[in-house]
Amino acid sequence: MDVAAGHVLVHGIELIARDNTTSNGTTTNNPATPERPPIYKVVGIILAICSGLFIGTSFVLKKIGLLKANVKYNEEAGEGYGYLKNAFWWTGMTLMIVGEICNFVAYAFVDAILVTPLGALSVVICTILSAIFLKERLSFIGKVSCFLCIVGSVVIVLNAPEQSAVADIQSMQRYVLTPGFLSYAGVIIIGCVIVAFVVAPKYGKKSMLVYLTICSLIGGLSVVATQGLGSAVIAQIAGKPQFNQWFLYVLLVFVVATLLTEIIFLNVSHDYV
């Protein structure tokens, strides 16, 4: 559920955080840019790859469950909740939850600028499994796109920054509670509400892009919040109190709400994939 909007936003936050670097290459005493042990990067990459494997597989299983439920309960695509009685759908949902947990933990070890692009591997896994189990054909352009996803992920892994832009929940709070970010988040949320209640009823059945747009925009915000929670966990382990900060619980509620929103609209969009 890692998306381009979140990648761009977090990259912007990292640039601001690193603005304290002097012209001669030395870094000022900024607690928001700590050095991380090299093993953190390895663990984060492994978790991000596992997340892609689990989530990519979950898409196919959930699609199988949705198709079977539509046939069994005579439901139209995007309507009804018969899939809640299907074992394939629940297996896919379980794998998605496990994948999202791996994704969440990965944000605690490496920056979102690294984790988010690796999420594209779930698309590659989903494409391969869809061709095998759903008999969906992949065009030449699709094959090239999958290849580019893999190459892009490798390039980013090799060139990811060693420093973290967000070290704890306090620094995350400073970045989030700014007019720029609040305005951005407000526009995204209002836009998604308009798409969900105005555009989707008219055009949702004609194109899956309507629902995928909601998931992508909301996912961009959830990526940012997830990185803040992950950094708070690492800071707490390091001995800096985090769970006494009210903003941590605001982020937690926000992450849960955005993930539920993504799950709901992803289930609908699967009928058009």
Poorly predicted regions are 1-11, 15-33
Look at the helices and sheets and give the structural class.
mainly alpha
Helix content: over 70%
- In DSSP terms (H or I, runs of 4 or more residues), the helix count works out at 10
Oligomer: single chain
What fraction of the residues are assigned to beta strands by DSSP? under 5%
Strand tally: 0
**What kind of sheet is the major sheet?**
none
Radius of gyration: 20 Å
Molecular shape: globular
Mean pLDDT: 80
Distance between the termini: 16 Å
Order of helices and strands: HHHHHHHHHH
Task: Identify the notable features of this structure and list them briefly.
273 residues; mainly alpha
